[in-house]
Amino acid sequence: MVLAAKRHNDYLSLENETAESWIKRFAGEESYKVVWEPLLKGKFGVEAQNVSAVWFWNKLKLRGGSRGKGGKENLLYFDGGFGGATKSIKNALENAGVKIITNTPVTKIISKDGKVTGVETKDGTFDSSCVLATLPLPTFLDITPELPKSYTEPAREIRFLGNVCLVLSLNKSLSSTYWLNVADPSFPFVGVIEHTNFDPPSNYGGKHIAYLSKYLPTSEPLFNLSDEETFKYCLPHLKRIFPEFNESWVNGYNIWRAHYSQPVITKHYSKLIPAEKTPIKGLWLSTMAQVYPEDRGTSYAVRHGRKVAQKIIQG
Q: Dihedral through CA 87, CA 89, CA 90, CA 95, nearest 10?
């Protein structure tokens, strides 16, 4: 199956097939039932059967391409994480004279006679002849009422899953494994990632950092639990995998939630993707829903943002 993925280069030819049928064709029914079905359901839940073969093919191709000749996977991590990268970008922009305004949500993108004129916020209106929106796609569509239906209707067919991520600071290591996929339908998370088995504890004051991430519809109870309820919910499940684990290992925890974290890559997804250059002159869009055939990821968001910025510069 991996060989088939590595040799296939035309993703559009896979758009008419689901991941389920593609896996069964190349890996068989038993492999699907034992390994891939639980992982797909763990990742996409009720949407698992709707996921396109393109999404799965690209995951195999990506993972195969990140390995060296000896089979060892090669991964990189920013010093200081994404927070460090964001801080550096912020400093560079401010040094270049850019004014960054935070805690000021945009409530509407304003246009007149088919041209963008600015953005409306809780603190007033900011005039502009060029706007690049990097909001989640549904939010962008909601605050841009002047967009024509020919642009918005296909885009609104793209469905999203939310995400809950529990990050644990531990005084003991759970295991020697960095990324543990769990092919057990009764386990509520698709994996346990012990980050400090990749980036060492010495970079985190000697603490061990592990996280559990879950993509799910935002209507599910787990998404709407309080932080403490979410933490308590996870503890017995962690103990099932790591019997020696005890709550006393936990120094602290943080929980993040996002409403539009994972676009669901369905069949014929390419027909739904909105153009970066919108029908409103001067209004541009760069979102995670547009990095297809890649899946959501910071590398692809950066690449897509650079591409759109270049188009804006060229006019």
A: 120
How are the residues of the chain apportioned to helix, strand and coil, as percentages rounded to the nearest 5? 45, 25, 35
Give the C-alpha separation, 166 to 157, whole Å: 30
**Residue 70: its pLDDT value, please?**
75
Edge to edge, the sheet with strand 191-194 lists: 179-181, 191-194, 208-216, 160-170, 250-263
Q: What is the pTM of this model?
A: 0.90
pLDDT digits (tens, 9 = 90+) for 39-56: 999 889 889 999 999 999
| pLDDT tops 80 at residue 146 | yes
Above 90 in pLDDT, residue 3? no
Phi, psi of 184, deg, nearest 5: -130, 110
Residue 65 has pLDDT above 70, yes or no: no
Strands (DSSP E) contained in 92-243 are: 106-112, 115-121, 124-127, 131-133, 160-170, 179-181, 191-194, 208-216
Residue 103 has pLDDT above 90, yes or no: yes
The 10 Å Cβ neighbour count of residue 199 is 15
Whole-angstrom distance, CA of residue 145 vs CA of residue 153: 12
Q: Tokens standing for 38?
A: 């639980």
Domain residue ranges of the chain, discontinuous segments joined by +:
2-65, 98-159+266-314, 161-263
Let me know if domain 98-159+266-314 sits in CATH 3.30.450.20. Answer: no
C-alpha gyration radius of the chain? 22
Indicate whether 195 pLDDT > 90.
yes
Amino acid 286 reads S
Separation between Cα atoms, residue 100 and residue 139, nearest integer Å: 21
Closest CA to 76 of 299, 303, 288, 307: 299
User: Which CATH entry fits the domain spanning 161-263: 3.90.660.20, 3.90.650.10, 3.30.565.10, 3.40.1160.10?
Assistant: 3.90.660.20
| 164, 255 Cβ separation under 8 angstroms | yes
